[in-house]
């Protein structure tokens, strides 16, 4: 059986479907009505197919239309082609249904904990039957999961995206330096500059996280950050350590908004002209592809909502009680 490209003599499926309808109904007009096209359009399509194939397909008379000998052969072959096309269509539909029944998301901790819940609630309103699995990891691991095909869509929070991934920014964020109410910096009014922050041991995320990448970039011109007090892979653990007075922690503004509002943590004033701690939050997927099915719907929801990091207060003046 030949596996080469189809020749220009093969009509499209719509034309073959029309020929079969005329053969079955014995009337070009009835076939046109059944397929929802005008009779002149159907007649023109049959004439075009006859020119394409190079032989007459129908004999027309006042009593109707019937296939010529060649037309009957083409109609028989057309039936096989359309049957195969319907099987292909059903198979594609089954593949799409299976794809649309699940969504695998891998997201950086900030996105997974503070943005993804709202996005997934909104997605459930659109796709209630889609089973979603969410894995939280640092940005480096997220990229690896997406590149390996183990996640349909990823969300990262670093400054750059690894090769092999396309991306779009879905939200804005920035880092805050926060301390517990008993820390000396909780009462500080003078902004902390880059040199002082670089010289101060801090509670930090691990290398590979977007949070650590942004901080390292901001402090690079000061020789990088001092040896950390602690390196923790959990946002919750970092906040608990800071609240407990272990030291200053560098965290996403999204992650500490509630603690700042409740006074459990204090935001340290920073010299923002000296320290660039802003960062984009991005969705990523393999280069050369486009998010499809539930991944496309989730991406659309994130881009329409476009959450921005809330403006949180700088360190509040201490009032003795």
Question: Could you give the topology of this structure?
Answer:
Elements: H1 13-25, H2 28-35, H3 39-53, E1 58-61, E2 64-67, H4 69-100, E3 102-107, H5 109-114, H6 116-126, E4 131-136, H7 139-147, E5 153-156, E6 165-179, H8 194-199, E7 203-204, H9 210-219, E8 230-231, H10 235-243, E9 249-252, H11 253-262, E10 266-267, E11 278-286, H12 294-305
Parallel strand pairs: 3-4, 3-5, 7-8
Antiparallel strand pairs: 1-2, 5-11, 6-9, 6-10, 6-11
Helix pairs in contact: 1-2, 1-4, 2-3, 6-12
What does this 3D model show about the protein?
With 321 residues, this protein is an alpha/beta fold. It folds into 2 domains: 13-99, Arc Repressor Mutant, subunit A; 102-305, D-Maltodextrin-Binding Protein, domain 2, CATH 3.40.190. The protein is built from 12 helices and 11 strands. Strands 3, 4, 5, 6, 9, 10 and 11 form a 7-stranded mixed β-sheet that branches. Strand 1 (58-61) and strand 2 (64-67) form a beta hairpin. Helix 1 packs across helix 2 (28-35). The radius of gyration is 32 Å and the shape is rod-shaped. The chain starts with 12 loop residues before the first helix and ends in a 16-residue tail after the last helix. Residues 307-321 have low confidence and may be disordered.
